[in-house]
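1st attempt posting a full record on here, be nice pls
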Amino acid sequence: MSTIIFGDGNLGRAIAAALRETGTEPLILGRPAGRRHAPADLGGAGMVFEASRGEAVRGNVESALAAGCRRFVIGTTGWDADRPAVDEALREAGASAVVAANLSVGAAVFLRIVERAAALYGAVDGFDPYIVEWHRRSKRDRPSGTARELARRLSAAQPQSADDLEVAVIRAGSSPGMHLVGFDAPGETIELRLTARDRSAYASGALAAAAWLSSESRPAGCHPFDAVVDEMTHPALAASA
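the predicted structure (as tokens):
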């Protein structure tokens, strides 16, 4: 099965390295010479990883669909406005994609821990939630896709805090990613922190998403990474119930 990676940046290279460890040599595509990649150059790959730029996601997916590609893992951020169009294009083509702002399995579990913590601290008085995120200076989106998802889940768990939830953004140096969620009260502060040391966790999650797509026929359209993590964590959760 041939494999394409859209994006020759840090994430694309990390996914490529993880694939090579499994014996797969992917085709890595950087920015196209024209506005988008020609479908004839894509060869109907069995798996496509999208790790480029937000403004390129829609065009890359549409070109790959035209080339006959039907399975996608999308880890790029900053394309929220194009998501309805991408989802519709996938459905029309009978194709499936796993989509996540952060493809780390650890981050996916972290999101759930934050949800639970937000619900618990929201049930008592005096705890004010906040988010701090720090990424490399060159990262374009502010806040990050993960920070926006954290804010969404915090706001859902604590609707009373949604309008004034503070999200602090740092763009400096070369940090691959740090997200901190805190709950501050007059007498104490509780903090939950997720720190990426490199992009290997994102690459491992991308391969897990690809395996999930390939394991059986999935409904057409976009699927959250949570669906992948659900299958991975289900035995442990069932055992603890």
